[in-house]
Amino acid sequence: MLTGTWSSSDYAKLGALEYCAKQSQYTLMGQPIDQSVSSTTLNAYSNSYRMKNYTHTNYNIVPVTTTYPSHTALFQCKSKLYTLEGMAESEQISREMVHAITKDFKAGVLLKEIDPKVKNSSLKTDDIIIKVNGVRIEYVTEISTALDKNIRKTTPVTIIRDSKIKTIEVNVQDSTAFLKALNQDVIARICTKNETSLTTTAKPGGPSVVASSSSSASPKNEAPDAFKTACTTVSNFLNKN
After folding, report:
1. What is the pTM of this model?
2. Are residues 88 and 163 located together in one domain of the fold?
């Protein structure tokens, strides 16, 4: 069980960042999936006392729940990141909600926010992306992979808008600098949570890979050596590139 400053989610993110940094690439990842497991046991105890000539004993049973944290991060290592112009905040939308329209039992990507800096964006808030460049999309990370297959200024994007399927042309932009800044922000927040425990302070694609973690924090809330090494590896890569 994690009892220190760092969470299981931090370990999953850091594992993904370190894996890609060793390949001299940036990390594109979604929010780690919580796969924590809980178990409940019954603890029994009793206490006795005497009253007059009788001994009275009380029995109590108390349920105790223990949670074993575990997170999995789906990520990609990218030398360059190409994205759809206007995309800001997005999330996966369940296949049950999409299937009613697509009839293919697959999920999609819901656009929760459009970048306000992009004027006249082809994409709109609440659009659901289901295809990019002819490739079926279920996860945000798959959008970049689809764009890598045919890099050009615009690309066809199939969306669900107002409960109808339509295909539009969307501008493609190079977001590598944004991805690097995002990696720097993540590593800074994770590796500087307890500066007295870490010797390194961070400054601010290929097939999908999974990084999992259920590690425990070291005694006295000190970062494990592997954690420190990972922070150093990622920081050095980001500072040099």
Report:
1. 0.68
2. yes
